Fold each of these.
Amino acid sequence: MRQTTVSIIGAGPAGLTAAYLLSKHGVSVNVLEADPEYVGGISRTARYKGFHFDIGGHRFFSKSKEVEDFWTEILPNDMLDRPRSSRIFYNGKFFAYPLKGGEALFKLGVFEATRCVLSYMKARAFPVKKPRNFEEWVTNQFGSRLFGIFFRTYTEKVWGMSCKEISADWAAQRIKGLSLSTAILNAVWKPKPKNKGAVIKTLIDTFRYPRLGPGLLWEACAEKIKAQGGTIEMGRKVTGLRYDSDAKTWHVTHTAADGSTQTDTAEHVISSAPMRQLVNSITPTPAPAAIDAANKLKYRDFLTVALVVKDKDQFNDNWIYIHDPGVKVGRVQNFKSWSPFLVPDPSLNCYGLEYFCFEGDGLWNSTDDDLIALAKTELAKIGLAKPEDVVDGCVVRQPKAYPVYDDDYATHVKTIRDELAAKYPNLHLVGRNGMHKYNNQDHAMMTAMLCVENIRAGKPVFDLWEVNQDAEYHESGDRGAQAGATGLRSVPTKVKDEEPAAAS
């Protein structure tokens, strides 16, 4: 039986951040990763015949100085500054994103633009007094026509639920301060700031990005962990966690692909595994209420169809949001625009078509050949490549990409948190799936950083659950400007039933 001070489940951004910082301070760590090949979790970089591509797009931008300094320390010489560019595709046309009101109305044509303006005027004159859902809130701001064009389809593709089911509070967070009238005014006349310092170079303009994708950074981080004395075991699935209350130690059992098992002992366990999976692996068995809560947690999954195409310079955007209901794809990534080094042959490009789904549904269970055929057809419909321009392709499935914030998720998470805190000392939850929180990469890293501080202090100095709880967080502001910065990654919540009126 092997002994270590800290056993870490998962080699994603949170797990590797914790392992690096702990091993840097001389703490013995062992990282257990279920994937046999890749570190980085959802921030890994997949490889196919010399092509590199993300599982989703991962911009390296954070308001947290600690996070920005970490990235620089891990990868000092291979970070590129890349221009940020994205558009929306709808009804055969491409629109700038963020939306420019004047351009949007012009491209929609006179007839549709008139309908949009009239719809907007109607919504302003007769707004829904107390908007309860996403559709009502956005319609109040933009009118029903623009809601249907630029908001409904993509939102429903990503989250797999009707806009009438999503709370108005989420809309207010996501689209704060926008209106059609101000968008048009800004498109026609945009006042200059009174002083030069008022112009902030934000993520809207540029972002940092590893030369060969985010996986390059996390692979470098893994090597540094090993150099500092830590260990990382790939293809090891944690199948059991047993807490010995007499010895005050954890016994961590993990299984390899060949079925062989091993058990380690550790003083602390840091888990970035899905909360549902973790709770069901613990002994002594948690209370039935905690087990039930864990099993009711839900996730949204997605898959990427990476198509290798003849490069005809069809578009230079990093990605395009597909709002058109005539295709199933939700977003198209242009990996050469992220970094030209991702594509080994300059005569070729690689597009990533992202399909949002639920594990086990029709899309998820489709064969790779069928998904590649679908992606080729839809890429042609969008006008980004002809089927004969596609020379190769592959499919990568990503389970549990997004935690679902349904009506009861907060209650379930609290039940689990209370149970773990009461019965299982030195078990630390970090990261997106570990905490069932829709964290950005930097937020996941920040939970790990605070966790390390707690372990080193021997007591809970920081509350990890406060990360990603600020009232607002935008992709703006100075990079690394805030020490200990946190922020909101807003996630749709379902409409709650009205409270019954009190009896008079």
Amino acid sequence: MTGFLMLCSDSKNTYIIKQEAFMEEIKVYNTLTKEKEVFHPIKEGEAKIYVCGVTPYNHPHIGNARPAVTWDIIRRYLEFIGYKVTFVQNFTDVDDKIINKANAEGSDWKTISDRYIDAYFEVMDKLHVRRADIYPRVSDHMKDIIDMVKTLIEKGHAYVLGGDVYYDISTFKDYGKLSGRKIEDMLAGARIEVNDEKRNPGDFALWKAAKPGEPFWESPWGKGRPGWHIECSAMSTHYLGNTLDFHGGGSDLIFPHHENEIAQSEGCTGCHFVDYWLHNGFITINSEKMSKSLNNFFLVKDVLEKYSGDALRYFLLSTHYRSPLDFSDDRLEEAEKNMEKLKDVIARVKELSSAEGSAVTEASKALVDASDHAMAVFHEAMDDDFNTGLATGAMFEIAKAINVYYNEVHGGIAFDKAAFEKAGKTFKTILDILGILEKEWKKQEAYDDKDYNDLMDVILAVRQSARKAKQYQLADEIRDKLGDIGIVIEDTPTGARWKKRGV
């Protein structure tokens, strides 16, 4: 790959960035070009990412969880292959829905937004979503927003109408390039009040005059608050500069929000705004888009009362991020079962971690080959537009190979520590990037307690005696009773083994 030069300027200087080949080749589907493209970072070895966050007026729903998990994995993978990632995700803490909620409760907008930002972090922590580098809030960036609006007016892209300021979409020749819409077909976008005095029906608000009972900030156009779209333009450029590597969010944000971000940002800076636009698909319920209007949406906190955070995270990443994902109890129950299987593999890796041996056998060679193949498959899947749906196949491939080798070792084959360590490392690396079962590796084994082990040996001996005497009902009853207290019995050709469930 050959390098290229990019020229851009801001209010202070003009600069040239040389782009060169870096690391392994990653292809991403760019919503802007409607094609898969090779990712070329603006600055070698770095990736600047901005993702639209939530409007904190209620507890987050699973539709909010999907982009959070998606971008958490993308970030983890980029860091794994060597990129320095700067990840910014905003909170839209000034919004009609927040104001309405506050008025209904007799509270204030900040109390509401703080409450639900805390609620957001609470469930995201349970989904193992790592914290962004920066979480800007709209309320903390009023100066940036006002300055950007002033610049857009000065450059002829915006006009004042009473106490409001509107963006004139006719002044931006590329308007509609992200969504593919034509200006003549545009109507006022979501969250924008139609004003008959606007120059064009599709012109959208940059600043809105304050209404009675609403929070407001002082501006050159009077007391008011920003429009929805200008907020992300101001915050993203404040922290990441005029041009971003990645901008993400749900498919529902392509128009009008992201379309308007492009017009605002490029109209203000004169620079290309985003190189790669990535949008995740919708969550569906019985193949119907989840929406509050249909009352078919689920809060993350409610789902987590029934299923583990690991199961929900796995469910969210089990399909390619651009594809629709149909929510169902059946799929989550299957995800939970898969988590139990993976816990068993983790337990086996931990169990043999202290074993010694250097016997290279056909079995250990097969394990090494499986490790290499699984990691190659994982990289191939992630390098192809971060396809976590295929990447999970590599996870289960190496899990199966570990299980096979574990059983062979317990069947008497000589142990190869180096081969097993490689397989365990491969398995753990894939799980860590996918963000699954992170805490399982830190759990203390129950096998270390000698008295506990001795007691279990006695119980297993009694059960084996019952089986030899063909007292199968008693043997099954012992197994079931142990299962009730979280101890799993595994009958193997070499005898019965036990383990703590989930260890």
